[in-house]
Design brief:
By secondary structure, this protein is of the alpha+beta class. Among the domains are: about 65-170, Dipeptide-binding Protein, domain 1; about 265-465, Dipeptide-binding Protein, domain 3. About 30% of the residues lie in helices and about 25% in strands. It contains 13 helices and 19 strands. It has helices at about 5-20, 50-55, 110-120, 155-160, 225-235, 250, 280-290, 295-300, 330-340, 355-370, 385-390, 425-435, 440-455, and strands at about 30-35, 65-70, 75, 80-85, 90-95, 135-140, 145-150, 185-195, 195-200, 215-220, 240, 255-270, 305-310, 345-350, 375-380, 400-405, 460-470, 475, 495. Strands 11, 12, 13, 14, 15, 16 and 17 form a 7-stranded mixed beta sheet that branches. A 4-stranded mixed beta sheet has the order 1-10-9-8, covered by helices on one side. A 4-stranded antiparallel beta sheet has the order 4-5-7-6, covered by helices on one side. β6 and β7 (about 145-150) form a beta hairpin. α7 (about 280-290) packs antiparallel against α9 (about 330-340) and α8 (about 295-300) packs across α10 (about 355-370). It is globular, with a radius of gyration of 25 Å.
Length: about 500
């Protein structure tokens, strides 16, 4: 008996079907290509400050005990539930059973203890070490239960555990995560072609709901013109933080695309080196704040996308206080303050990282400062240089950067932070906030913190960065807002 007549019959039936108007099924698209302007310096969120790290790996490759949802809510992560003691000093986490790392090793309470102890260790390289400062001990109760003891109550503890810096890593693979990240997320690392792309693939043994994509490619395109060309040519499926807002109207007019405008946690500031003369004089810092026209920067550098801010806090947060009037554009007042400070013919170094908000905004700010007698000497630096020279070495006068970490006003309490403020009264406010659990009391303290740094003109507060994204109109599930620095691909799929 031969199978060939049956095959011939099948071919005839297919031909007949096509003749009657039937079309063969098209396989659903299972991969996506995502554009990013900055390439991460490494892929370990527990060992680097760059937002681009989390933009690739947060929720995709690595997971924490808790996580941020698309609306900023704190959701269960590797901890499926938790109990908090009445005194607020102990958190007992019930962990996901059946979870595993991408190298096949099992996830359990020992990994949580290792990760938290490593992050808070004296020699820790974690960029947000302060998140773990209140932890006094971590105890393994059993493989699926871990108990975290705090030295004092911390109303932000579950929020802190949702940061990318608090993800859980494994003893066996932690040291290699910078180049070969091994997490518990629904995607596992596949390849990093330096200067071009990072590729992730679906992790078949993921503990939770399976993702709908087989592959995600993050492509790094720093030039806004090239980003526009790549989207128009279909080389990219989405660019969630599109770097050329001047092109958004063209995408809006093209039915192939959807323009996604949302909010972010990105407080964009003109940071000042508070310990470097003459910026250690509050009158000089105040003069700089009054020299700046925020709306002109938003219109000129961001094509109208952005919300003016007068302090380091997101306007969409219910506790936000509008303090923009306190540092309103007033060149005359700026000149008077400089005269009171005894400063004239002032020249300051303005170091600008690659993002367009910095490079374009820096040119506008330099012109505004020039009007009050301050010369800003611009130096464009690459991201790695900025991290080394500005963030670590504090070798700068002025710089422009968007702080995209969620509700990160606490950085102003760090003595060694790059703008070198560390005021004792501010630190006292932060200590009270950490101990407060009553929502009204926490709001009052957050507002006091906002006013304190505005009063002290620590930095010039420019605008809240809008999240301006572009995507293929058939791609669904991208976050419209950015409650943390992430390109969460776990809910992304193609329209059928």
């Amino acid at each position: 008996m031969t199978k060939y007549p049956m095959a011939a019959a099948a071919v005839s039936m297919l031909a007949l079907g096509l003749g009657l108007g039937m079309t063969p099924a098209v396989a659903a698209k299972m991969d996506v290509s995502i554009g990013m302007q900055l390439e991460p310096p490494n892929l370990d969120p527990t060992g680097g400050a760059a937002a681009a790290i989390d933009e690739v790996v947060y929720a995709n490759v690595f997971e924490g005990l808790t996580r941020f949802g698309p609306d900023g809510a704190i959701l269960p992560g590797l901890a499926e539930s938790w109990e908090i003691s009445e005194d607020g000093l102990s958190y007992t986490f019930k962990l996901r059973e059946g979870a595993s790392f991408h190298d096949g090793s099992a996830f359990d309470a020992e990994d949580v203890k290792f990760s938290l102890d490593r992050a808070r260790a004296e020699d820790s390289t974690n960029a947000q070490k302060a998140l773990f400062a209140d932890i006094s001990s971590v105890e393994v109760v059993d493989p699926a239960t871990v108990k975290v003891m705090l030295a004092k109550p911390n109303g932000s503890f579950l929020f802190n555990m949702a940061w990318g810096d608090a993800v859980i890593v494994a003893t066996e693979s932690a040291d290699g995560n910078a180049a070969n990240p091994v997490g518990t997320g629904p995607f596992k690392f596949s390849e990093w072609a330096k200067g071009d792309r990072v590729e992730l693939e679906r992790y078949a043994d993921y503990w939770g709901e399976a993702v709908k994509l087989d592959q995600v490619t993050f492509k790094f395109i720093s030039d806004p013109t090239a980003a526009f060309a790549a989207m128009m040519a279909g080389d990219l499926d989405a660019f969630p933080a599109f770097p050329a807002p001047e092109n958004l109207t063209q995408f809006e007019a093209d039915p192939r695309f959807e323009v996604i405008i949302g909010s972010s946690e990105g407080e964009t500031i003109l940071a000042m080196n508070n310990k470097k003369p003459p910026l250690d004089n509050i009158k000089v810092r105040q003069a700089i704040t009054h020299a700046i026209d925020r709306q002109a920067i938003i219109d000129g550098a961001m094509f109208g996308y952005g919300t003016p801010i007068g302090t380091h806090f997101a306007p969409h947060n219910p506790a936000y206080v509008d303090l923009t009037g306190q540092s309103a554009h007033d060149p005359e007042k700026s000149r008077a303050l400089l005269a009171e400070a005894g400063v004239s013919d002032l020249t300051l170094a303005l170091k600008l990282p690659p993002p367009s908000y910095a490079r374009r905004g820096g040119e506008i700010i330099a012109a505004q400062l020039r009007e009050v007698g301050i010369t800003a000497e611009i130096t464009n630096v690459e991201w790695a240089q900025w991290l080394e020279d500005v963030f670590k070495a504090k070798n700068f006068d002025l710089t422009i950067v968007s702080h995209t970490e969620p509700m990160d006003i606490g950085i102003y309490g760090r003595d060694d932070y790059y703008f070198q403020y560390g005021d004792a009264d501010f630190k006292a406010i932060m200590a009270d906030l950490a101990n407060a659990t009553d929502p009204d009391a926490r709001t009052e303290l957050m507002q006091a913190a906002q006013k304190k740094i505005a009063d002290d003109a620590v930095n010039a507060y420019l605008f809240q960065l809008a999240r301006t994204g572009v995507a293929n109109a058939k791609l669904k599930g991208l976050w419209p807002n950015s409650p943390t620095q992430a390109n969460d691909m776990t809910g992304v799929s193609w329209e059928e």
